């Protein structure tokens, strides 16, 4: 039920089988399109196309579609990257449905790169044994995918998009979700609006902004995991956070990204002295798994030797044409990547953990489905294989649509009237002093390198911040809840695996070779024990 007594305006109930989707990134829009012609309302914190990691994706989507490639090879790479805890059944399902979802995206108008014969051009990324990444103009995949989907959504009369609606709470009756409460005007409005719904699909993206250095947009602040956990949903693997090794280190928040594809194309990592340090750490050097490269870069930065991505030889003069997004970010900061190495640092990039879902995207709460980065399907295990996340978003969003259709078999054709009053303004969500403190604490204690003592301190500090801010401040409560789940699961996992590295237990341990399943109740109990 709503957590405070402030006025809530009910959205006029149309008497239709409404489906509410939270989030206008790839997962949310793809699910809405797959549900057409059923009436769907998409609530998005920012205008669609903005405030979503999907639009920023540079590499592309992984799919086993080339002649030499097979589902088994893609699965083997996914399992190897996942460090022992991938749910193989779920991963196989995702991989085998990948090519069909790529064909769907082509049908929606995504201009994936093709060769002269018109075949899809597939490129290779770190830890992939085959060329299997479909891209658009080098590093423009996310932008091009989102542009095509947004245009299709705009042409689909059964989809209503409410922009600037920040969802704060899921309305629950027992273990059943019956709607959501959102705050319009990019979360600035004094009045909240209730949206009753037969089905709610959570597609609110990642957690990057719970940390100080991240590649994620401001809207990725873990609200979805927090909201779901606060009504009792089971959360899986929250401790597994992926740090991108090569965020461009020019003091920008969020930090721009130097795509993995650059290393795939032969760029090297060097320190100030010009030493190629990854060759000391892993046989695959720059193409080692992300966590290994992130720790390598982190160590150089921590030791004051600096870390740089040198693309001058491998990419050189082709940089502006092959990687226009990265080129623009560098040039804005006065670095010409054609002739100069790019300063880099690790940044929070992707959350492997999230709301536990099954193969149809159902959460542990009736009436609530989830897709995309907010979920934990188990396909990534402890570490995501590059370009598998967009794939996961489309595959499970489509499965959710099928599942919901099965439950509401009679589509009611409906055209939303042109909605008035939705905000097109791009307003950035603000960081409160408490959030800034939370972000600092998370980076210091739940970052690239963690310790049991640091995590204990972090959990106590989060509880103190919650008390200071008051549990009634819903938006902060959602963020603090997600942070607490990450910290608690990281504290309990006394080993190192995938994206989770504990310098006090640096090796994987057989006893921990399993996924984590945790509720907010569990996290609160552990926090109370640590306080006592
Ligand atoms: C820089 C960058 C590059 C990447 N490159 C790749 C790549 O090449 N390949 C790959 O597979 N993956 C890549 N990823 C990861 C991938 O982009 C994401 O995992 C994926 O796009 C997530 O899609 P999503 O729909 O779940 O979330 P998003 O695209 O982040 O969308 C989330 C949506 O929810 C909205 N939202 C959030 N909170 C609320 C709220 N409380 N109320 C209402 N709306 C809310 C947001 O505004 C947004 O509309 C990259 C990520 C980043 C940051």
TrEMBL record:
<keyword id="KW-0285">Flavoprotein</keyword>
<dbReference type="Pfam" id="PF00890">
    <property type="entry name" value="FAD_binding_2"/>
</dbReference>
<protein>
    <recommendedName>
        <fullName>L-aspartate oxidase</fullName>
        <ecNumber>1.4.3.16</ecNumber>
    </recommendedName>
</protein>
<comment type="pathway">
    <text>Cofactor biosynthesis; NAD(+) biosynthesis; iminoaspartate from L-aspartate (oxidase route): step 1/1.</text>
</comment>
<feature type="domain" description="Fumarate reductase/succinate dehydrogenase flavoprotein-like C-terminal">
    <location>
        <begin position="474"/>
        <end position="521"/>
    </location>
</feature>
<dbReference type="InterPro" id="IPR005288">
    <property type="entry name" value="NadB"/>
</dbReference>
<keyword id="KW-0662">Pyridine nucleotide biosynthesis</keyword>
<dbReference type="InterPro" id="IPR003953">
    <property type="entry name" value="FAD-dep_OxRdtase_2_FAD-bd"/>
</dbReference>
<dbReference type="InterPro" id="IPR027477">
    <property type="entry name" value="Succ_DH/fumarate_Rdtase_cat_sf"/>
</dbReference>
<comment type="similarity">
    <text>Belongs to the FAD-dependent oxidoreductase 2 family. NadB subfamily.</text>
</comment>
<dbReference type="GO" id="GO:0008734">
    <property type="term" value="F:L-aspartate oxidase activity"/>
</dbReference>
<comment type="function">
    <text>Catalyzes the oxidation of L-aspartate to iminoaspartate.</text>
</comment>
<dbReference type="Pfam" id="PF02910">
    <property type="entry name" value="Succ_DH_flav_C"/>
</dbReference>
<feature type="domain" description="FAD-dependent oxidoreductase 2 FAD-binding">
    <location>
        <begin position="18"/>
        <end position="390"/>
    </location>
</feature>
<dbReference type="InterPro" id="IPR037099">
    <property type="entry name" value="Fum_R/Succ_DH_flav-like_C_sf"/>
</dbReference>
<keyword id="KW-0274">FAD</keyword>
<keyword id="KW-0560">Oxidoreductase</keyword>
<dbReference type="InterPro" id="IPR015939">
    <property type="entry name" value="Fum_Rdtase/Succ_DH_flav-like_C"/>
</dbReference>
<dbReference type="InterPro" id="IPR036188">
    <property type="entry name" value="FAD/NAD-bd_sf"/>
</dbReference>
